[in-house]
Amino acid sequence: MNAKRTDFVATVVIDLIVASVVGILFFLLAYILTAGLPHVSWSFLTGATDAFSGAGGIGVQLFNSFYLLVLTMLISVPISLGAGIYLAEYAKDNWRTSLIRSAIEVLSSLPSVVVGLFGFLLFVVKFKIGFSVISGSIALTFFNLPLLTRNIEESLSAVSRSQREAGLSLGLSKWKTELGIILPVALPGIVTGIVLSAGRVFGEAAALIYTAGQSAPVTNFADWNPMDPASPLNPFRPAETLAVHIWKVNTEGLASNAAALSAAASAVLIIAVLLFNLGARLLGNYLYRRVTASK
Amino acid sequence: MLKQYSFEETAVQTFDDKTSLAMRTEDMQVFYGSNHAMFDANLAFPKNQITALIGASGSGKSTYLRSLNRMNDGIATVTGKIWYHGVNINEPGVNIYEIRRHIGMVFQRPNPFAKSIRENIVYALRANGIKKKAELEERIEQSLKGAALWDEVKDNLDKSALSLSGGQQQRLCIARSIAMAPDVLLLDEPCSALDPISTVKVEETLLELQKKYSIIIVTHNMQQASRISSQCAFFHLGHIMEYAPTGTMFSNPQIPVTQDYIAGSFG
Ligand SMILES: Nc1ncnc2c1ncn2[C@@H]1O[C@H](COP(=O)(O)OP(=O)(O)OP(=O)(O)O)[C@@H](O)[C@H]1O
Ligand SMILES: [Mg+2]
């Protein structure tokens, strides 16, 4: 009887904790969305910002956020894929590997403001790249690499040893086994991790304030030549992102409706991040079925 | 308390020069770090026969078997000689990938790739440079027939291998191995995860396969050993104690340890 009672009490307590976590999340979401959504309109989503007051739409910032995200992923996915495969398959259990692992831990616990300042000092000031998309995405890469690497390593290690033995016993090289047999099985987990980290990168502000900059110069969306200074694809132009924009409107916005503007932008940001989470789930499940079950 | 048997008293048969051998080990030792797991293993395997390796759990059967196609590389240190077609393949310079194509292996747990049945068979073939569609199709059919799986899957080759039953998966793993056209097939308790009916199917498959391949099989099941094997080796604590034709081994074991093991009064 006593065991049954403790069991009951424990279940109730755990249920309450879970309920409060879910409750807080829903409260937050509902609050942000109800405060912001009424101010979101098509012209807000696509319009240009007034450079002086910060009023107006968030079209350029939205584009910048996505562009930075894509660039960051282009840099960080291949690197962390290599690092993840190395750690999961090739790294021996010795001091060098522990050193690498500790380095990754430390990198992942660096505050993003510090990463941003470092990026500012090194790329913006020392290398004279200036506030730019490229400086921002390199800073974001620092911030993204440890998590992605760990995710990839874990996804690969989760694949059963027997799959590796099967590959090796057929005379496949280790690399071929890894690429052709292990990676496809681990892919759903890896893709989920990538999309989730995309959500984090998308919402990051602190690392970008000093690297990608706080201005969104009006760009010419008819000019897609990345070499042109006015092109939205030019990686050397300053690019205020949505998250940075929210921070800026709130701290130094001069517009009369600054509160409404930041609420609306926050709602858009939250929706985008939620979509990333949902996408991660759907894509992961889809790939899992694709890889394992019948086509 | 385990009864103590002398490791000096062994009865290991050898073959004369007229018997053609698939492979042979000479004074093979295996170490897992400082753990000496296999002592002076001297066994020769006649061509086109099934040889069974029996012995209690932990006696070193898998250790021995996995050394034969160098699957212990990077896991254990293997010394001594492993003769295959007149070459000692336990040398650093030997191409282990090539060796494993000639000496195939099937594991205790069915481990098909998470791919279609077709891909399970052709993946390694393609990786080895066989690209012609006709040849690949031919190999798929031949290997699945060889593993007695063709009739069950021929209409569903694009289905995921993971949707097959355990017994079918194991036969697919056998098919995948023989598709490489090996000449020795190593099997480590291939039936231990299977039901009796699938077991019979796999056994029939092996009996058929010995016409083309030399087979070395680890088994815990003495009935299975007596049903399918021609030669039988008994392992005890990392030592090979007795090696004889299966009939002789079961009806008239030579040394006390084998007698006790076969009588079931072991330890
Ligand atoms: N990967 C390994 N690392 C370290 N020791 C190992 C490893 N594999 C096996 N051993 C040791 O080698 C000895 C023989 O093990 P092995 O797996 O060859 O036995 P087995 O006869 O195949 O047993 P079973 O019938 O249970 O499969 C055991 O003492 C075991 O602890
Ligand atoms: Mg074993």
From TrEMBL, chain B:
The keyword Disulfide bond does not apply. SMART domains: AAA (SM00382). Pfam families: ABC_tran. GO terms for cellular component: membrane. GO terms for molecular function: ATP binding; ATP hydrolysis activity; phosphate transmembrane transporter activity. Residues 23-262 form the ABC transporter domain. One of its GO terms (biological process) is phosphate ion transmembrane transport. The keyword Lipid metabolism does not apply. CDD domains: ABC_PstB_phosphate_transporter. Keywords: ATP-binding, Cell membrane, Membrane, Nucleotide-binding, Phosphate transport, Translocase, Transport. PANTHER family: ABC TRANSPORTER I FAMILY MEMBER 17 (PTHR43423), PHOSPHATE IMPORT ATP-BINDING PROTEIN PSTB 2 (PTHR43423:SF10). This is ABC-type phosphate transport system, ATPase component. The lineage of its organism: Bacteria, Bacillati, Bacillota, Bacilli, Lactobacillales.
